[in-house]
Design a protein that fits this description.
Length: about 450
């Protein structure tokens, strides 16, 4: 009987928060349905694979060069720019709300935000494109392309904006161009097969991919197909979306099969391709998954579900293959790669020398900084702003690290974050769980 009571007490202790003051670990065991479904597909991992799990301290007097801060005034691509990589954003870091909007939509909003001409652009599952004016503090336009017969369908819109025109692909097979200044459709096409990728624009061309892993190169002013490039089709669909990144005169296309293609923009032919899926067994437990690919015009970084690859942009040759990977998009800062591994390590890697600069357990660093017992944090975004590495947690805390891997501060955002944050004019913009916009200085 004593053993029975002891087990009950032990169970209760394990499920209690060890930190009721800061709330840093709050809701750390809560996983949303979407997250649970996506990780369920990858629960069977090879027992032969041993993930990197070492703590490596940075060498004494080692200093990483800090790039100049960029005062972003636009966010026209859901991944910020053509390469999907972030700059060192200007950020005032006072953590004060300077604007709080009213509810922007009654429906679930896409977590990716756009910003142009002092206007926030978002979309929701009903297919609405919403233009919210920061200066006027109100919704200017709520546009819906879809007819009544599509009313019951949940829409997943992929957006990119250029010269006041929003280009949209969706999960119904439509692709259209919408002029939000004049509130009119420029062109619209129905390609019958759902699109499943982000969008990229290079010169007069618009790039998109569908669920069959076909890459479309379209004339952006008309929507006419210039070329269609078929790639390997995956019979079993998963949560991973085809991903596009742009490097100088090439488009980089990572499909759901796990193949990476380099496409020449001018000739519209394949420069090279490389398969990154280590398994030829395409059962649900071996489906390929990756974060968004990033590049710096010389190197491509792909953080897949089993390995992280560093690939030469020109030749497609694999330069490094790491036995660590990340659940969120990595970051290239100069010659250094930063990522958060699946086992909660903040890793900095020298891409030029091919060496790990440091590797620290984030949960342990939080524990030491706050003088509390360690638990497991859940990570949302990794960015660089105000000369520091910022790690956004899903419970709306922000970890502020120096480039050398030392925690400088831990603070909580003034309102709960429920979208990907964007940095504009020295402030952070994001949506909360009530679908209200917060602008934090």
């Amino acid at each position: 009987m004593k053993l029975f009571y002891a087990l009950i007490i032990l169970t209760l202790l394990q499920n209690c928060s060890f930190d009721n003051k800061t709330g840093i670990w709050k809701n750390d065991n809560i996983i949303t349905k979407d997250e649970k479904d996506s990780f369920e597909e990858f629960k069977t991992l090879s027992t032969e694979q041993e993930f990197f799990d070492k703590i490596i301290s940075i060498k004494k007097n080692f200093n990483l060069e800090i790039p100049n801060q960029i005062n972003a005034i636009e966010w026209k691509d859901i991944f910020y720019n053509r390469s999907n990589n972030f700059d060192n954003f200007k950020y005032n870091n006072s953590n004060e709300i300077i604007l709080k909007s009213k509810k922007i939509s009654n429906y679930k909003i896409n977590e990716s935000l756009l910003f142009i001409d002092n206007n926030l652009i978002v979309s929701d599952q009903k297919g609405n494109i919403i233009i919210y004016s920061i200066s006027q503090k109100k919704i200017l336009i709520k546009f819906n392309f879809y007819k009544k017969r599509f009313k019951k369908f949940q829409k997943k819109l992929n957006l990119i904006v250029q010269n006041n025109i929003i280009y949209v692909s969706d999960n119904l097979g439509y692709l259209y161009a919408y002029d939000f200044k004049n509130n009119m459709i420029i062109w619209a096409k129905n390609y019958k097969v759902p699109f499943k990728s982000n969008l990229k624009i290079l010169e007069n061309k618009l790039f998109a991919a569908n669920i069959n892993n076909n890459l479309f190169i379209l004339e952006k002013n008309s929507g006419n197909i210039l070329k269609k490039i078929p790639t390997e089709e995956t019979l079993v669909q998963n949560m991973f979306e085809n991903n596009l990144s742009q490097s100088k005169n090439s488009i980089l296309f990572l499909n759901t099969y796990g193949s990476l293609y380099s496409i020449n923009n001018n000739k519209m032919n394949i420069n090279w391709f490389l398969n990154l899926n280590p398994s030829i067994d395409l059962n649900p437990s071996n489906l390929f998954y990756s974060n968004q690919i990033i590049n710096n015009d010389e190197l491509i970084v792909v953080a897949a579900n089993k390995f992280t690859y560093v690939i030469d942009v020109k030749t497609g040759s694999t330069i490094y293959k790491f036995n660590f990977t990340s659940n969120i998009k990595p970051l290239i800062v100069g010659r250094y790669l930063f990522l958060i591994s699946k086992n909660n390590l903040l890793i900095s890697f020298d891409l030029k020398k091919g060496k790990i600069v440091y590797s620290y357990n984030i949960n342990q660093e939080i524990s030491k900084f706050l003088n509390i017992k360690p638990k497991k944090a859940q990570f949302k975004n990794l960015v660089m702003a105000g000369d520091h590495i910022l790690i956004f947690l899903k419970n709306s805390f922000v970890l502020k690290f120096t480039l050398n891997g030392a925690i400088k501060d831990i603070y909580k955002l003034p309102s709960k974050i429920n979208s990907n944050p964007i940095f504009v004019g020295g402030s952070i913009l994001y949506l909360d769980f009530k679908k209200k916009l917060s602008v934090v200085n």
